[in-house]
Amino acid sequence: MTILNINGKSRKTRLPPDTPLLWLLRDELGLTGTKFGCGISMCGACTVHMDGQPVRACVTPISAAEGKAIVTIEAIAQDAVGKKVQDAWLDLCVPQCGYCQSGQIMAATALLKQKPQPDDADIDKAMSGNICRCGTYPRIRAAIKQAAAKTEVQP
After folding, report:
1. What pLDDT is attached to residue 152?
2. Of 103, 95, 85, 89, whose CA–CA distance to 41 is shortest?
3. N or C: which terminus of the chain has fewer CB atoms within 10 Å of its end residue's CB?
4. C-alpha to C-alpha distances, 9 to 48, 90, 119, nearest whole angstrom
């Protein structure tokens, strides 16, 4: 049995340790905000935070998540920065189809937690690999900048 910390709660699973974290989240725990896109870590739809770092749940085995704090889109608003990012997404009507947006929000939140005032190059680097088939990239960038403007810089 494996015990994982997911969204601040202890969760037990008997799934094999090489099972991708994505399948535990979606199929076992019903946390369907994390999406399956490509299954090979190329699209970013399955992005979650592991100890504050963005990771692709589709290729991260459950065994790699043991002893780490996992945060999914369902709990990102409990984080002050995550809440600002979600608010900016809503304010600017970022989603079109919305399928990729949970991964986009998770990546943007991780960026702003590491670099509260990113420039365009920082945004490009952090969001690289998060694919939006609808092409909402200009609104994603604007939302990141809006959330950054509302995020205090720590000395």
Report:
1. 66
2. 103
3. C
4. 15, 27, 35
CB atoms within 10 A of CB 154: 5
Q: Read off the pLDDT of each residue in 144-154 and give the average, rounded to a whole number.
A: 83
Mean pLDDT of 82-94: 97
H or E segment to which residue 11 belongs:
strand 9-13
pLDDT reading at 153 higher than 90: no
The pair phi, psi for residue 121, each rounded to 5°, is -65, -40
Residue 125 has pLDDT above 90, yes or no: yes
Task: Provide the whole-model pTM.
Answer: 0.94
Query: Average pLDDT over the chain, rounded to whole?
Result: 95
What is the DSSP secondary structure assignment for residue 140, as one 8-state letter?
H
Order of strands, sheet of 69-71, starting from the edge strand that comes earlier in the sequence: 9-13, 2-6, 69-71, 47-50, 53-56
8 Å CB contact between 40 and 21: no
Query: What per-residue string of b and e applies to 23-43 under the rule 16 or more CB within 10 Å gives b?
Result: bbbbeebebebbbbbeeebeb
| Both structure tokens of 67 | 């002893």
